[in-house]
Amino acid sequence: MNVNQKENNLSLGEGQGRAILGIESSCDDTSAAVIKDGILLSNVTASQAVHEQYGGVVPELASRAHQQNVVPVVDAALKKAGVHREELSAIAFTRGPGLMGSLLVGVSFAKGMAASLGIPMIDVNHLQGHVLAHFIHAEGEDYRPPKFPFLCLLVSGGNSQIIKVNAYNDMQIIGQTIDDAAGEAIDKAAKVMGLGYPGGPIIDRLARQGNAEAYKFSKPHIAGYDYSFSGLKTSFLYNLRDWIKEDPDFIEHHKEDLAASFEKAVVDTLMNKLRLAARDLKIRDVAVAGGVSANTALRQAFIDYGQRYHWRVYIPKFGYTTDNAAMIAQTGWFKYQDKDFCPMEAPAYSRVTM
Fold it and tell me: Which of 113, 140, 179, 292 has most Cβ atoms within 10 angstroms of its Cβ?
């Protein structure tokens, strides 16, 4: 990861009167946010329900929806913030990773708007944005950001990583999945059980009503801080197949316990490696980020581990767990202080880690 390892020289007094517009369009949420003088003034998101009937995001439909949503969403964010477009100092945008068609809508809009206003552009790595969501400071909200260095468990449908965050622009991946991501594993379990899309929230809801100790599934044994969830998925599938042979309605009769047991296996796997990393690196400031950080069991595990191992834990607000422009604007605000701008010809990219 180790991106632009400049000295982190931010100070609260810099950039007075500066307003940053953030634009996020990496997948199926069109989002815009405004930060002024380091304070979040608005964060507006338009989601796309069209994908539910297909059981997953359809890239072509996503990009078309972004084209329809980007103008009204940006307009709503500026109005809610009480900031006129001519007052903007820079535009931060998600450059990648993500779906290329979706990214191109946001990148193209940011370029056009920045050019028309004669202001600089700031490219943001979507994954770094999730990590830096812990620094979002909104009026009326408690502001308790982690201190550098800290560990961040970044978990989503496409990523499972343990990151050592030395500064806003100095992050090192010390562990990651070697196959499937935690969020992907949960979604696949929901799909196998016929629970619908998106699977994560459904598993979460059912698990709250189930017994997490009802079933045991094989857990991978991977050296170091890396993860593997493919074996866990296979164990779940094979066990389910055998149980259904004995009782064709097994899933319907035991879906709450199945959800709770599978969820526990995923959370235990995530937390065990994070605990080892925190112990070995002697770091007690530990954060979680990404879409899966909205999971109830994972959030509770952070609280429990924090009490047990004397961690200072940082859990994002639910609104900052999924894809949102507030985290893009926040990252843009940090980079603006260092005048870390990007050229107009900078292309979007679909794949990169950090």
Answer: 292
